Amino acid sequence: MCIMFLLEKLKDLGILSPRKAEDYKKAWYKFSRNPLSVAGLVIVIVVVALAILAPYVTPYPHHAEYYVDFANANQPPSLAHPFGTDQFGRDVLTRIIFGFRYSLMMAATVLAIVTPPGVILGLIAGYYRDRWIDTVIMRIADIFVAVPPLVLALSICAVLEPNIFNAMMAVSLMWWPWYTRLVYSMASSLRMEPFVQAAEIIGASKIHIMFKEILPNCLGAILTKVTLDAAWVIILGSALSFVGLGAQPPTPDLGTMLSDGAKYMPTIWWITIFPAIAIAVIVLGFNLLGDGIRDIYAAEAR
Amino acid sequence: MSSTLLNVEELQVHFKVYGGILKVLNDVALTVNEKEKVGLIGESGCGKTTTMKAIMRILPWNAIVPKAKIYFKGKDIMKMSDSELKRLRRRSISMIFQDPTAALNPVFKIRDQLFDIVKYANLEMGKNLSKKEIEEEAIRLLREAALPEPERILDSYPFQLSGGMRQRVCIAMALASAHELLIADEPGTSLDVTIEDQILRLLKQIVEEKRTSIILISHALGAVKGFVDRVYVMYAGCIVESARTPDLFREPLHPYTKGLLAAVPKLTGGGIPSGIKGRVPDYMNPPLGCRFVTRCEYAMPICEKKQPRMIKAGNDHEVACFLYGE
Amino acid sequence: MKVSSENILEVINLKKYFKVSKGIIKAVDDISFNVKYGETFGLVGESGSGKSTTGHIIVGLYAPTSGKILFEGRDISMGVERRPLALKKKIQMVFQDPATSLNPKRTVRQIIELPLKVHGICHGDTTQKVAEILQMVELPVKYMERYPTELGGGEKQMVAIARALAVNPSFIVLDEPTSALDVSIQAKIINMLMRVQKEFNLSYLFITHNLSLMRNVASRVAIMYLGKIVELASTEEFFYNPLHPYTKMLLSSIPVITDEEEAMKPKKIISTGEIPGALNVPPGCSFHPRCPERLEVCDKIEPCMLEIAPGHFVKCHLYNSARA
């Protein structure tokens, strides 16, 4: 397909080494066998592109922030406003696209904060399995896991000032142990593999073994989880905004839009339904993409 | 003369993978007669298991079968309907796999797995057995497979049994439905040598008592020698030689067979044998002529152009090599 | 056992016990042997015999429960974390299954580079050195950029051996190096190992259950059963004059091809029963339940290791009476 062609070109241009080009081609082959995965990739790319280019692609970019036009309020979907207008006269389609920004930003930030420490702790705990470090790390992780996620996030947000930044902190705090657990389970079994033993016999340092021997074998699971987690973080973030503890109005956040429009259901349905569909679409996109990524790393059958 | 039980002719199997098509099996042909013990030897990757899977019709999803004539007692297996196939698998042919641990479901006790097989095997014969009868039959099968304390085995999970016992459970399962042909794919490879010896002797005894035919696949030449009546030698998806066992080991004809036998270290000493030079051919681009040509020390110009056919070279001895004619 | 400077490795009363919930597994139970400089010492046994564990202890993957290991005269009876780097350069290991002993996510170059970098043999661009090493094991230099999954079984094992040779060790533990491979590839690899041994004056501890291979590779052989060495002799003696009933049982069940080999084997001893688990080691001589030549005393007292002929040691009551 065209992707294969593109990768071949990159290799010829010297941007990609032959080894890497071959690896990516193989990865694409495995990924593209399932058309749903490709659909997921397309959805995610479209959403990300829309989010980045929001001010340029939306019909009414100025509606995204503070804007009032009561003459045009509560208009049903029309050609001028494909998703209608909300109670302040703001174009729903525009706000949704801007809302993508916040959802994606939340996902990216939380996962960026959470993944490195979570993975590193999991590697350490897995390498030193059955020693005291393992116990300490994993029991601390257990504590965070034991608290229901939404409750923890709500409590933190309620104590601190409700804004999107604190919402992200709250979600990060309860998300990291899942990465530790995932990496721990993989690292602790990989620890016993002959290739790790061989590295020890050679005299490789522990850091090398953790990061260069064990970690590459966990990447598949980590990447898959990150992708699927993006969907979860977006849902959680929207839930927090929905109850008023995340993004505050007039910020166009999908969750806030849902809560704003909830009281007008079912008559002014477009204010709620379209943001809801948008959330569903993003989540679906990331889930399908995550499945595809998992397929890339799935063991090859003989 | 006993009649033909299984007749495979012109079997070709290809696999679709990243990068192209692997043309693995190249016109494989073999025959198994009633009450006969046949061996199939060859090294890993040569297509022995693929051949058996093709016969049992359990090839993976990316397998392509351009040509296949597989007849069991005269009926074409490739054209059988689902119900005929079921009947075949429950009554006539059964397979023992290489790794008994992988062949048994780890979350079920042996009784759950064995009872199912016994029940359906008998159902095909029109016998609807009661639970008690099924249990008795299962115990009888386990005893036949030389397992002591069958009742305890029934109540165990696979992980509670040793490798040798697991393999014997697999044999018992195969016995339930293999009334005519048993296919044993490297049955002792993952086991210790003394246990492997026991398993092979057990199989030999069973097969001789029950007058079943058996195809024994192995890359261990010694194991095959003491067991089977006739041997097929396979290389890179082709059958290159077939002969009666004593003839093959005493007078191998095909250069590959010769190289293989020479490569086995001898108990009597003699130093390290030399291997066969070169590598197995790439299935994606197999040689146009004989697939062994790059490694053969007797290679002639014709070997690169034409593919050799199996020709008679003695009493019950066939070889696919231009050294012996065309 | 004589302690002298002709031995690169001396194992003295080595024990390794594992505590599990059900009790204690005596994986290695008081074994002693030496490996001379430049020799290939063979260790034979079935699963549960402790031969692999012995290899692991020598290399440092396990620390011994008791006993001593002397390497070039120095005590190295400790786990690999506590061993000095210079020692790790001298002792290397080749594992049985190359598919798991090579990291599937690292290229051949990275795998061979690792020992070079760790021991400071080569920094920066390692291409030249890695190419040299690949040539030494007769692998094409272009394999450098491949992943192990793209190589055949024999080739993977060559890479594993290349990795072991990269640091120029003096002693290599070969744990069933060819058991997972086909016979024609086995021949190639063994030939390569022998050539390299001569070229670099290496000493090998060769662990395998394949007696025919052992016959042609080792100069001395020890056979283990349930953690103990039951017989130790030169290869000739071991194969032509086996003394211990277990040795005879094992030899009689090897499948062979030629008639001469068949004639050489001891009379067929049908092995009965399962190999007992290491948790339920029988009292007295641990082999007595399966032994066809069992005596009265065998289930009560453990026999001692005695030197019946020069260099030929047996642990069996049948030969005790000769001395008693």
What does it look like?
Chain A is mainly α. Chain A has helices at residues 2-13, 18-32, 35-52, 54-57, 92-127, 132-146, 149-159, 164-190, 194-202, 206-242, 254-262, 270-297. By secondary structure, chain B is an alpha/beta fold. In chain C, a hairpin with a 2-residue loop joins strand 11 (305-309) and strand 12 (312-315). Chain A binds chain C through residues 18-19, 193-195, 197-205, 208, 212-213, 216-217, 219, 300, and chain C through 59-61, 80-81, 85, 88-89, 91-93, 95, 97, 100-107, 114-115, 118-119, 145, 149, 160, 163, 167.
Unreliable stretches of chain A (pLDDT < 50, length at least 5) are none
- Give the count of helical stretches of chain A: 12
Number of helices of chain B: 12
- Return the structural class of chain B: alpha/beta
Fold topology:
The complex is a heterotrimer of chains A (302), B (326) and C (324).
Chain A: H1 2-13, H2 18-32, H3 35-52, H4 54-57, H5 92-127, H6 132-146, H7 149-159, H8 164-190, H9 194-202, H10 206-242, H11 254-262, H12 270-297
Helix pairs in contact in A: 1-2, 2-12, 3-5, 3-12, 5-6, 5-8, 5-10, 6-8, 7-8, 8-10, 9-10, 10-11, 10-12, 11-12
Chain B: E1 4-17, E2 20-33, E3 37-41, H1 48-56, E4 63-72, E5 75-76, H2 82-92, E6 93-96, H3 100-103, H4 110-124, H5 131-144, H6 150-154, H7 163-177, E7 181-185, H8 193-210, E8 213-218, H9 221-225, E9 230-235, E10 238-244, H10 245-250, H11 255-262, H12 301-305, E11 311-312, E12 318-319
Parallel strand pairs in B: 3-8, 3-9, 6-7, 7-8
Antiparallel strand pairs in B: 1-2, 1-4, 4-5, 9-10, 10-12, 11-12
Helix pairs in contact in B: 4-5, 4-7, 5-7, 7-8
Chain C: E1 7-20, E2 23-36, E3 40-44, H1 51-59, E4 66-71, E5 74-75, H2 85-90, E6 91-94, H3 98-101, H4 108-118, H5 127-136, H6 153-165, E7 171-175, H7 183-200, E8 203-208, H8 211-217, E9 220-225, E10 228-234, H9 235-240, H10 245-252, H11 259-264, E11 305-309, E12 312-315, H12 317-323
Parallel strand pairs in C: 3-8, 3-9, 6-7, 7-8
Antiparallel strand pairs in C: 1-2, 1-4, 4-5, 9-10, 10-12, 11-12
